[in-house]
């Protein structure tokens, strides 16, 4: 850790808190952010307030203990004790003020994102709802009207909404003022910069993807609604047309959205996470959202293909959006199945360009889940040799020399190895559940099943915090 990042721990604090506080600044705060430098508020802000903010102090120690519990099992109960103490401090803070102090809200964010570290299946909904209510009702008191913290919380809520909406149908998506209207005209040339500022400063959670993640969340909600009506044919007949219309509106927005140019993205000061990583991630989110729409609403895909076949672009034509170049790279007679597979594979291609050392590694798991369902092997391979069904352990040379099969197996191996590396690097219990689900997805694909990742996750009861 650079000397400029060192934090003075008061000598009056006893041994375990000293160890946990030091570990937080050495290893944990970087996991909370997609880049690590003085611009990472989980480092810089916490270092400013932890000595006087009881909610932040206990929340940071709780997250550290949860991360260390694998190597030091006795810290599991310690982590839960600090978690309980943090919640008591938050409750006391709320009693004493009409508004939520910013340090208390920050502690809620730490608790919410680390809850799954204690229990992989706890996605921290109570913490999310408390933070969402505070931010949307403008009930937060900021020190000196700090605009940077206001912006941090607003965009952090976008990411948190996306992460929990993917695994819970109970989440209400806010009408974010980042994208007031998700109609195609208002999503043209959106950037994450503040009004009047041509520079784009990556956010610790959303990077440069805030508008895309707003759409990603709404796609998740539409798909969740679709899943809820599948068991009722009468309800489905009534609601499906409206859901399909909403999916189509989101699809148009995804084709119209414009990402910032790399020259306009500010350097975060993290040499491991250049601007290109944030842009690759934003592109992957676009592909991921579109894949989910087309997989669940084939009519939307057919309508898009009809427009493109006539040379007509539905929506506006953005300067920096990867979708047109991707579509034109496909053969004109490519099937819908091939197109879907290509969308998923393009997610993985972008993640492969980002090394595991990148700070964005901790926000990549969602995308690997989405892409996994596209990594099906050619059907002759599956039907000819039952011994190859468990393909995440198959050696490429065992696949009859099929280039396509070898390529798919390599992409599968990348997702498994990337998640396994994450497990070692961030000691996160949710990653264990993610690995179970993604291996099950590949097994079902090899059984010839039509697989969608959310269905598999819910059937296995492996819902977890994916970011």
From TrEMBL:
Residues in coiled coil: none
Keyword Signal included in the entry's annotation: no
Any one GO molecular-function label of the UniProt entry: transcription cis-regulatory region binding
Subcellular localization, as worded in the UniProt entry: Nucleus
Keywords: Nucleus
Gene Ontology CC, one term: nucleus
GO biological process annotation, one example: positive regulation of transcription by RNA polymerase II
Keyword Nucleus (UniProt): yes
Pfam hit, one: Fungal_trans_2
Protein name as it appears in the record: Transcription factor domain-containing protein
Organism: Oidiodendron maius (strain Zn)
Species classification: Eukaryota, Fungi, Dikarya, Ascomycota, Pezizomycotina
